[in-house]
Every structure is written in structure tokens, then in C-alpha cells.
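Backbones bend. We report:
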Amino acid sequence: MILTGPITNEQLMARSSIGLYVFLPPGENERMIYEAGFELITSADLTSNAAAISKRWHDARARRYEELVRIEGMSTFQNLQKFLSCVHSVSDKRLLSRFMYAARKRTAMAT
């Protein structure tokens, strides 16, 4: 996740509540790609996809509230809804961004 705006500790905790996430400043992924011996071919900003998918998933789960609470329990249902709401909010406002990178191994230069 790329930090692309001001974000609160509450938003970071909610956004990372379901697993391990690493939040990096802009340019850090590109630097690490280069340091690992790769050249960046292209990158694509997928942030709008994260915002759209999390909203659809949240809303679909809300429509199936009773069934999901019965299966997951109230706590799990609420926690996942909070996570999805946060993903949508920070992505839609571009506070956290998601990028895809394509790279290839750098070739050694002849001397």
C-alpha cells in the first residue's frame, strides 16, 4: 500500500486488520525494484479498482446480513464490514493507493 494522503492511526489499524500489510511512501516500491536488480517496465494505478470492489463487496454482504451473521457471528461480520468500509474510504479519497508493477531482470552492461 502506498501512502498517498494523510491517514489516521485508526484508518491504518482498520485497513490492516485482516492480515499483514506494509505501508510505504511514494517511490519506495520503485526503489526496491531497482535495488533488487530489476528494471521497471510499467506500473498501473489500481486504486480505483480497490475502491469499487470493496464497496460492492460491503454492500453485497450488507444485503445478506442475517445469513452472514448466522454463519460468521456478529463480531466477524462487523469487523469485516468495517474493513471493507475503510478500504473503500481510503482508496476513494486516495489516502492509500494500490499499484501493480511489471519489471524484468536488468542485464549486465558490457565493459
Observations:
- The mean pLDDT is 94.
- Strands lie at 2-3, 38-45, 96-97, 99-105.
- The chain has one domain: 2-105.
